[in-house]
Amino acid sequence: MPASAAGSGETPEDDDPAHEGSPDSRTSSSRATPAPTSDEGPAATGRLAEPYRPGTGGTGGTGGIGGIGGIGGIGGIGGIGSTGSIGSTGSTGSTAGTGSTGSTASTGGTARPPVTGDSPTAPTAHRPHSMAAPARDSELRRTFPAFPPRPSRSPASSASAADARFAETWWGNAWVTALEEGALDAKRLARGRSYAEQGNVDAITVTPGLVLAYVQGSRPRSYRVQVRLRTLDDADWARFLEAAAERPGHIAALLDKELPQALADCGVPLLPGPRDLDPRCSCPDYGHPCKHAAALCYQTARLLDADPFVLLLLRGRGERELLDALSRLSAARAARAAQEREPAPLPGVRATEALLPRQLPPLPAPLPVPPHPEQPPVYPAAPGGPDPFALDQLATDAAARAHALLSTGRDPVAELTLWQDAVRLAAARPGSGLTAGTRALYASLASAAGRTPAELARAVAAWRQGGLEGLAVLEEPWDPPAGRFDRARPLLLAADLPAFRPSRNHLTHPRGHVQLRLGRDGLWYAYESEPGHDDWWPRGTPDLDPVGALTGLGTPSGL
Q1: What ranges does the record give for the region Disordered, renumbered to this chain (predicted)?
Q2: Sheet with 278-281, edge to edge strand ranges
Q3: Concatenated DSSP letters of 402-439
């Protein structure tokens, strides 16, 4: 046994090959002397090493069973080494032959570094084990990734009591207290805490009554560690749920990943006591706990810091199951309290008072009608939101209609058809020309009305020319009675204009580029088109005189 282990009261390094008891950690001879600890090289069995000679490997001694370890040289300088150890480089005789098999070592050859272990070839490093299997997780099985190493603390900060605590919450430190008060060896706890702080604990799997993980020691192979804890029975869970549902703050704290002190003191043993934790490890150390199990317990305290539902899962219930049960219990308690509560007396009036004749006060005078509708508020533009200009237009239109209804008692838009209202909305947009915003508006309104944007643009021009009557002149030809229509042609001839061709309520210029249309309101509406294309667009201002309606289109000589 090394001196350090013997003096501390701790069992030898359970990671070391000399104390594992596995086949790869024993010497090849059943009577060979024990090998030194893992920080030393293997002993040369049954032979003496020759003095160092530069350039040669030296002559190996004749092997024997149970012999005394050879005298190795110190690596690097080739001097005479101490008994029982071989230098890492430049040793003599260690590579010339194997003494443990009883053969005579050959001479010559260049010396090579010794290999660790008792076999001539170096063992293959074990692949680290891991409990990480998120695909297998469920309501009653949760896997948590490994914690990273903690930053090292300065000597000044480590002296304080706050820094000496491993966990960050009171329930996490209660778990650590249960571990430390139930341990039999404080030095194993210190080694286990060091393993936890260095990140030697792999992914942790938590199921009811069990915490499971692989812990890396000083050897490449990890150890499988379990920590068992008794689960609660149905009676304990019933008391816990009643205590949690009694105060809404308890449920809110659990949802916020907090464990109230009052909830932990409700008579149900949520937190473990000093002898409640049952650690088990695959290493050969039979301490309670070994340092690997202590490391897992310390890391479990960090899991409890982040989520107290891990503690409840250890005790036997999953998070969703508990929250559903608390929800049902809270609803039942609220319904029971509502049934037990006496109904409040309804306010009432005595019948004699209600039937007494009363003189009602007169209604207040109506407010004066504002002179004009006010401007709507400014709507901010938001990515993916509605067009603020379209919102402003709709709000302005609604204010104008409300003002007309308030002042005249009728809504000027209430009797419009869908097409007429779409034309009215498009004509109310200020500006001329089809900008990007106007094209989008025209496309939306035309699609809603079942028309094309070109038809809507022509109708907007007619609406701007004469409103609803102007739109009717555009779309509804009619046969006017004799009188005003018949007198229009002589008036045009008197103005030195050519004879216009009549057709129903239309008078068309002989060249086919100007047209007059008589509306049912008695006004003449002027239209223009490319000669010979019959593509008529409203122009100018309506007038009772046909010559006046043509005034805005050009000089008589141009007509």
Answers
A1: 1-64, 85-160, 359-387
A2: 142-144, 204-207, 210-216, 222-228, 278-281
A3: HHHHHHHSS-TTTT--HHHHHHHHHHTS-SSS--HHHH
H or E element in which residue 190 lies: helix 186-197
Token pair for 45: 């069995």
Q: Among 231, 305, 304, 297, which residue's Cα sits nearest to residue 268?
A: 231
Helix/strand/coil percentages in the chain, nearest 5: 40, 10, 50
Is the separation of the CB atoms in 232 and 209 below 8 Å? no
**CA–CA separation, 88 vs 115, rounded Å?**
9
Among the residue ranges 195-204, 338-347, 538-547, the one predicted with the least confidence is 338-347
CA–CA dist 303, 299 (Å, integer): 7
Residues 426 and 443 sit within 8 Å (Cβ to Cβ): no
pLDDT at 228: 94
Whether 70 contacts 93, CB under 8 Å: yes
Q: List b or e across 184-215, with b for residues whose CB sees 16 or more CB atoms inside 10 angstroms.
A: ebeebbebbbebbbeebbbbbbbbbbbbbbbb
pLDDT band at 477 (very low <50, low <70, confident <90, very high): very high
Spatial strand order of the sheet with 524-528 comes to 501-503, 506-508, 514-518, 524-528, 537-543
Residue 101 has pLDDT above 60, yes or no: no
| φ and ψ of 507, to 5 deg | -125, 120
535 neighbors 459 (Cβ within 8 angstroms): no
Q: Which two tokens stand for residue 130?
A: 């891991």
Nearest Cα neighbor of 480 from 535, 519, 430, 439 is 519
Rg (C-alpha) for the chain, rounded Å, is 50
**Cα–Cα distances in Å, from 470 out to 199, 398, 462, 467, 485?**
85, 23, 5, 5, 17
For tokens 């008792």, name the residue: 118
Both structure tokens of 120: 């001539």
